[in-house]
Amino acid sequence: MNNKKIIFFDISSNNKFIINSNIKSKNFIIFKNKKYLLLKIEISSESHPFYTGKKKLIDITGRIDKFNKKFKI
After folding, report:
1. Cα-Cα-Cα-Cα dihedral of 53, 56, 61, 66, to 10°?
2. Under a CB-based contact definition with an 8 Å cutoff, are residues 29 and 36 in contact?
3. DSSP letter at 59?
4. Which residues pair with 28 in a beta bridge?
5. Would you say 36 and 19 are in contact if contact means Cβ atoms under 8 Å apart?
6. How confident is the prediction along the chain (73 residues), in pLDDT tens digits per residue?
7. pLDDT for res 51
8. Is 7 exposed, middle or buried (0-12, 13-18, 19+ CB in 10 A)?
9. What does the alpha-carbon distance between residue 54 and residue 73 come to, in Å, rounded to a whole number?
């Protein structure tokens, strides 16, 4: 197992989390003068409505439009 420190970047809340992970990524980021692997995520506990108590609609990939077009809503 190749466990390394990686930064998960929540693009909807701009929060960063450093954890150990086996995930492979081609992206890197310099954080506090250290080089980390970077994985961008759309939603985390910092931005998810269940944890924040705030309703927020995020559709970065256009999935809602695709669904509406497919079912003509």
Report:
1. 110
2. yes
3. -
4. 37
5. no
6. 567 888 888 877 788 888 888 888 888 888 889 898 888 877 766 665 555 556 655 656 677 777 778 787 6
7. 53
8. buried
9. 25
In the chain, domain spans: 4-71
66 three-state secondary structure: helix
Distance CA 33, CA 9 (A): 17
**What's the pLDDT at 46?**
64
Tokens of 5: 């420190």
**Residue carrying the six token digits 């990686």:** 6
Evaluate whether 7 touches 17 at the Cβ level (below 8 Å). yes
Residues facing residue 21 across a β-bridge: 4
The first and second tokens of residue 26, run together, are 């081609």
What pLDDT shows up at residue 49? Answer: 55
- Return the structure tokens found at 58: 């995020």
